[in-house]
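Lab notebook page, bench 4
Experiment: in silico fold of construct C2
Operator: M.H.
Input chain length: 286 residues
Purpose: comparison with the prior construct
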Amino acid sequence: MTLYPIETGNFKLDGGAMFGVVPKSLWNRTNPADANNMIDMAARCLLIEDGKRLILIDNGLGNKQSEKFFSYYYRWGNYSLESSLKQYGFAKDDITDVFLTHLHFDHCGGGIQWNKDRTGYEPAFNNASYWTNKDHWEWALHPNAREKASFLSENLLPMQECGQLRYISPVAPAYLPESPLGFGILFVDGHTDKQMLPHIRHKGKTLVFMADLLPTVGHIPLPYVMGFDTRPLLTLKEKAAFLEKAATEGYYLFLEHDAHHEVCTVKHTDKGVRLDKTFTFDEIFK
């Protein structure tokens, strides 16, 4: 097995929304805001080469939305999904499986693209199965008012219409030790219903793809919960349980949204679980 970090493009989000009830005077220390109160964000994905399978976990925002849509997210930097894959000698048609932690647009938007004449949409990964779970799929197709702007039909329906959609099952218990893709999955419900966090064993280490349970190192203290979460009190409980285990078991945490840190570890302290060390991906797995 070989793992590759895939940078699909950086953007910005409102710092207040990213930290909920936590005052700016506190979160600004770890995630400094610009003059518009926006903080740096990544859309960092993970590619797993395992035998004949090439599995991509999440795929970023994509590029099919309107200029007005992207103007809200202040994209910056030179990364793209295509260039990151090319860096490691791969192309989109090489991908055999696309695993989606959840279906918010910044995690699945790169999976669907315009067709050649821009009259409709098509899968960006022609030879891949797209993996979600049935409960989250139904949640995304019939969104609540709070999440409606994050679940875009053009990102979802083409997966089903092209026949490439697959479901991970069952979604109970909360941890699935072995999935069809060869890694364990933790199901969490605080951010959105049945978000899936892959647990990957590699070179004697456990790497956990954190998605939106832990967007950045600045979110490690328990009260630092995103305003986007649908069930923030549940996020508190889920994050507390996970971080306790991560500190005890020595997990390496792969950070999808931290623009400045790729991987971190956590440790037990008198104040609870806190940041231990940060690493580049290559420092751990190369």
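Observations: The two ends are 12 Å apart (CA to CA). The longest strand covers residues 195-202.
Next step: discuss at group meeting.
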